[in-house]
Amino acid sequence: MTKEISPTSENILKLQLSGDYYDHQFTPFSVGLMLGNVRFGILLNEEQSNMAGWHDDPLKPVEGLISILGDSGHHFSLEIAIENGEEETACDFLASYHGRMVWASESRRDVFIVSSVPEDPNQGNIELKSESGHTFTISMEYVEDSTLQQIEELEALLNKSNTHGQSH
């Protein structure tokens, strides 16, 4: 018997993408991971944001993160926020992506979260990796908090939460 989980359930992550919509194309520039009232913000670097246009896929910049969430057993809802641009022409795009539920097929397991500079873990970017090898890099260039502090916040959000009724 499976427990019915609604998108508003406290154990469902929200993946919030904010960006611009021009010429029928969404270009994300930030990502928010939310669980309950806890939010972790990620600023995408220029190369990550540009991937949406290069691949004609609005989710390409966060493809690694989406794969990691699935590999680690996190169900999530996708939320889209258009900050600048032609929101009135984005109806089809929003209908396709905003509110979409993504159900993980794997059971809960930890995400590997480390600094890109292991010899000085308070420096560098944050590297996320799943057991199956998917990766995602969080640039720390414009973040005021230390890399270690951000890693601890991500650990609490992704690895120590959302375990009700599931095994690690």
What does the model show?
Helices cover 22% and strands 30% of the residues. The model is unreliable at 1-8 and 162-168 (pLDDT under 50). Strands 3-2-1-4-5 form a 5-stranded mixed beta sheet. The protein has a 3-stranded antiparallel beta sheet with strand order 6-7-8, covered by helices on one side. It contains 4 helices and 8 strands. It has helices at residues 46-54, 63-71, 91-97, 147-158, and strands at residues 13-22, 25-35, 38-43, 76-85, 101-102, 112-115, 126-129, 135-138. The protein has 2 domains: 13-102, no CATH class; 112-158. Strand 1 (13-22) and strand 2 form a beta hairpin. With 168 residues, it is of the alpha+beta class.
What are the SSEs and their pairings?
Elements (H helix, E strand, L loop, with lengths): L12 E10 L2 E11 L2 E6 L2 H9 L8 H9 L4 E10 L5 H7 L3 E2 L9 E4 L10 E4 L5 E4 L8 H12 L10
Parallel strand pairs: 1-4
Antiparallel strand pairs: 1-2, 2-3, 4-5, 6-7, 7-8
